[in-house]
Q: What sequence folds into this?
């Protein structure tokens, strides 16, 4: 049965059936062969509807829309230009600028996909135009986007909190230092990787000029972060505020929203939105049939039933999460595994908040691991000429960094727990 | 025949515009909710719920357009490395499989909506929206997908979708 | 269940026909209802000597409360448990649990559910295709907020309170507050950042979700008796051998009693815990309850409109004593 699903998915994907339909059709076939057909088929519309029936998900199309407005109007370009003038004289300066932008958008949105969409749409064409190697840029953006769920606000942390009863506020605080460390590591690594491109420093006049031009774009994250942390709106609603602001800036300041521009904005938003949401539907359908056949549960339980030391179990858990992360999307993995893992982790004496951060980093890995990795798909969606293989090759070093980071957190759990214990 | 082909593509494109409008409406409703709640202390009872329906609609109305414009992500590992003949064959197979999924989605989606209608299920909120209305997006999206995959099959292995839309 | 059935079930479990039953629900493992369900499952498996294989999907792994109705009705799972509030959207009579002050004590609720009221609800549910196995009590609903102590219905005026479900929202409106709808995952942050002023739930959930960290005041007004329903797909049920049906029904009845007993203890324990964690608690004195009930009458009207004659019948039953 496991072979049916892994082999089936590989076959469907390789003959060129889009990912969303491969996942969905495999779920249908699984229902037909293993779960007495028609009963199960009646679940298809129920699960499809349920996949999208979540208010927090409405943020996603709105962030896609915002990123399109930012791109088409030129707001994003100016913002990026500012970051590049401040950073470009460093080796791989634009890479640093890109991670910087990723961090800002991570602090705006709770979703990694939204972060990758927003920054990717601006940074990808710009970096490639300036001679950065595309594969490196794609890897950087896919990985940089994942910071969206480690740096608060974070949808997976909210979910972990609601599944376990661990305080979401504490989880958010716990994410701050790991988020900053991972951000800096990404900056340093990408700067070294792309060190050959070093542009001549911008003059102070140029920097200030770009900053002045980018002021409207900079206003955006400030208003959004300020609005979220002062409680004026929720992270989900922040997306709508972002769209309205971006729209007003494009309309009143940049004055370049023509009917043609608007048409382009609408149609590319629709495409990206339907692409991502339909993958979520496919993944949820597959998740439903796998769960009802108890496959993920069996894998997890087999790994933890071994009579070995807590750390061996911990390593096995991480391997299981890595494997599940290849095939399922993050929400499904959390919902399936957290209720099983949480009691075990606490019984073994691990700190539940520390483990939550380990889980979130695993979810970051899931977003960039093939064959099913939403961030990979988002970047592919930005430009048809991008291939999944190229993106995956680019992302490998970052995946290694994340795995090493998990190891680091095992040796220094204080990275996670320090702020939680010392901030009220 | 040719006329039907073009009309079908036009239908898919109209659905895409509708999908985009739903995303715009979601933005406006959510923004309105923030303004009335934060400035006037008067939250709406409809913004959150209707936004969710609109986003569900935006996905199902837009997905056929994404098929026709090749915006759905595919793994091109093999497709890019085989000769033209094999590529055409693979395109037929994958589009036929896509069609199969779409038919199942539309068919069972339709029966689901019918059942919801008969039971008179409403939303659990203050609005008590008859649930068959938002659920109707599923069979509609399914039918649009069926049309899109049939057009793909008519095109054969050639990428006729995309830019001409 | 009569004593005759009991003797049968005490015989060897080997006599049961093999069956696989999938049971889905969405409550955390340490909730007392979850513990009841796990015990229910364990007993059935033991008594049938493993012939009846119960596959449990807890914590929303498979289905959330919202999807449960339709999945259960179409046989996606054989058994499912979710909140009566959700069922009210399909079977309006189930809204009786959301009618403020319909049940004022645990004992009263237990008696009603074991009596005529329970029978009416069971038959309403069977009409759409679900047999009710168990009324699992969740506990009384209360209000937590971060503005000021709520010591009378007037104190609710102008507050923004996170709400789920039609009737609880109408209750909030009846007291002059505004219901706010936001995703479940955003409530904690919404309360923390004061996007909303308060939320309503049972104290068991408030402890579980650490509401004490983000709200200061708890009002114990026992305005509603939250109920969860364990249902089984009727077509599936009718196909089961009588012996199996008897075993399941008996075990469900035992579990229902255990949960009802536990609900009271858990409500008391978690209330104490919220006090210990530093929340300022106002418990509405018994003599004030008629006042709170009177102010909630618009919700009674609304329930009558939704549930029609059956609704009126149910209201007479709960108001009759
Ligand atoms: Na974030
Ligand atoms: Na993955």
A:
């Amino acid at each position: 049965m496991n072979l049916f699903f892994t082999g089936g998915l590989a076959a469907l994907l390789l003959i060129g059936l889009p990912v969303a339909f491969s996942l969905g059709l495999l779920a249908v076939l699984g229902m037909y062969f293993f779960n007495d057909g028609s009963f199960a088929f009646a679940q298809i519309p129920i699960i499809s509807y349920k996949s999208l029936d979540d208010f927090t998900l409405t943020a996603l199309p709105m962030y896609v829309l915002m990123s399109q407005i930012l791109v088409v109007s030129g707001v994003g370009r100016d913002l990026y230009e500012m970051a590049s003038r401040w950073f470009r004289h460093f080796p791989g300066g634009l890479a640093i600028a890109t991670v910087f932008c990723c961090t800002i958008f991570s602090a705006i949105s709770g979703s990694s996909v939204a972060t990758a969409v927003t920054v990717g749409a601006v940074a990808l064409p710009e970096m490639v135009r300036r001679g950065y190697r595309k594969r490196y840029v794609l890897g950087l953006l896919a990985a940089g986007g994942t910071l969206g769920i480690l740096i608060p606000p974070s949808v997976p942390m909210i979910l972990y909190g609601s599944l376990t009863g661990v305080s979401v506020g504490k989880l958010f605080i716990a994410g701050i230092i790991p988020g900053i460390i991972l951000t800096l590591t990404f900056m340093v690594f990408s700067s070294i990787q792309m060190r050959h491109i070093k542009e001549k420093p911008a003059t102070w006049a140029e920097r200030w000029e770009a900053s002045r031009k980018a002021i409207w774009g900079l206003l955006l994250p400030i208003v959004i972060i300020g609005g979220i942390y002062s409680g004026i709106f929720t992270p989900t609603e922040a997306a709508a505020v972002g769209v309205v602001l971006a729209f007003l800036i494009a309309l009143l300041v940049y004055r370049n929203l023509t009917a043609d521009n608007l048409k382009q904005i609408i149609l590319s938003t629709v495409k990206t939105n339907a692409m991502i949401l339909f993958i979520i539907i496919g993944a949820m359908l597959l998740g439903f049939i796998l769960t009802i056949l108890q496959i993920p549960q069996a894998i997890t339980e087999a790994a933890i039933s071994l009579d070995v030391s807590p750390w061996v179990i911990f390593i096995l858990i991480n391997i299981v999460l890595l494997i599940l992360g290849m095939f399922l999307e993050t929400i499904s993995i959390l919902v399936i595994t957290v209720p099983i893992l949480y009691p075990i982790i606490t019984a073994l004496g691990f700190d539940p908040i520390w483990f939550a951060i380990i889980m979130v980093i695993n979810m970051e890995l899931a977003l960039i691991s093939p064959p099913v990795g939403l961030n990979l798909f988002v970047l592919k969606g930005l430009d048809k000429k991008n291939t999944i293989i190229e993106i995956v090759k680019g992302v490998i070093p970052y995946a290694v960094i994340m795995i090493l980071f998990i190891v680091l957190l095992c040796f220094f759990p204080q990275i996670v727990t320090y702020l939680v214990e010392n901030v009220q | 025949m040719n006329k039907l082909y073009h009309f079908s593509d036009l239908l898919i494109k109209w659905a895409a515009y509708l999908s985009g409008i739903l995303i715009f409406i979601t933005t406006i409703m959510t923004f309105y909710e923030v303004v009335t709640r934060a400035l006037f202390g008067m939250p709406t009872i409809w913004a959150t719920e209707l936004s969710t329906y609109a986003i569900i609609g935006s996905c199902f109305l837009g997905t056929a357009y994404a098929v026709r414009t090749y915006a759905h992500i595919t793994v091109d590992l093999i497709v890019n490395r085989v000769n033209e003949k094999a590529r055409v064959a693979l395109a037929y197979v994958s589009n036929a499989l896509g069609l199969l999924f779409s038919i199942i989605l539309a068919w069972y989606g339709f029966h689901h909506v019918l059942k919801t209608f008969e039971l008179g299920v409403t939303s659990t909120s203050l609005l008590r929206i008859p649930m068959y209305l938002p659920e109707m997006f599923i069979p509609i999206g399914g039918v649009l997908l069926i049309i899109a995959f049939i057009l793909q099959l008519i095109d054969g292995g050639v990428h006729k979708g995309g830019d001409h839309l | 269940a009569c004593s005759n059935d009991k003797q049968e079930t005490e015989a060897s479990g080997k006599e049961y026909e093999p069956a696989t039953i999938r049971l889905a629900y969405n409550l955390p493992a340490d909730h007392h209802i979850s513990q009841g369900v796990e015990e229910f499952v364990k007993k059935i498996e033991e008594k049938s000597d493993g012939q009846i294989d119960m596959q449990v999907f807890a914590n929303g792994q498979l289905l959330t409360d919202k999807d449960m109705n339709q999945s259960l009705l179409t046989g996606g799972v054989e058994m499912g448990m979710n909140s009566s509030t959700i069922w009210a959207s399909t079977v309006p009579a189930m809204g009786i649990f959301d009618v403020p002050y319909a049940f004022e004590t645990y004992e009263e609720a237990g008696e009603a559910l074991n009596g005529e009221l329970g029978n009416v609800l069971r038959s309403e549910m069977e009409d759409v295709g679900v047999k009710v196995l168990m009324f699992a009590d969740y506990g009384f609903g209360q209000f937590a907020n971060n503005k000021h102590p709520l010591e009378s219905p007037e104190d609710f005026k102008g507050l923004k309170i996170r709400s789920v479900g039609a009737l609880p929202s109408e209750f909030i409106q009846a007291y002059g507050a505004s219901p706010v709808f936001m995703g479940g995952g955003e409530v904690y942050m919404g309360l923390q950042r004061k996007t909303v002023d308060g939320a309503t739930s049972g104290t068991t959930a408030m402890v579980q979700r650490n509401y004490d960290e983000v709200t200061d005041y708890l009002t114990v007004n026992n305005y509603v008796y939250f109920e969860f329903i364990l249902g089984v797909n009727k077509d599936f049920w009718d196909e089961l051998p009588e012996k199996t049906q008897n075993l399941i029904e008996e075990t469900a009845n035992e579990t229902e009693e255990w949960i009802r007993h536990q609900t009271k203890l858990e409500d008391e324990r978690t209330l104490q815990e919220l006090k210990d964690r530093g929340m300022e608690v106002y418990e509405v004195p018994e003599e004030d309850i008629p006042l709170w009930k009177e102010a909630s009458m618009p919700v009674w009207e609304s329930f009558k409109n939704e549930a029609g004659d059956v609704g009126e019948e149910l209201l007479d039953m709960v108001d009759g004593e």
Summary: Chain C touches chain A at residues 22, 28-30, 55, 57-64, 66-67, 70-71, 74-76, 181-186, 188-190, 192-195, 208-210, 213-214 (CB under 8 Å). The radius of gyration of chain C is 20 Å.
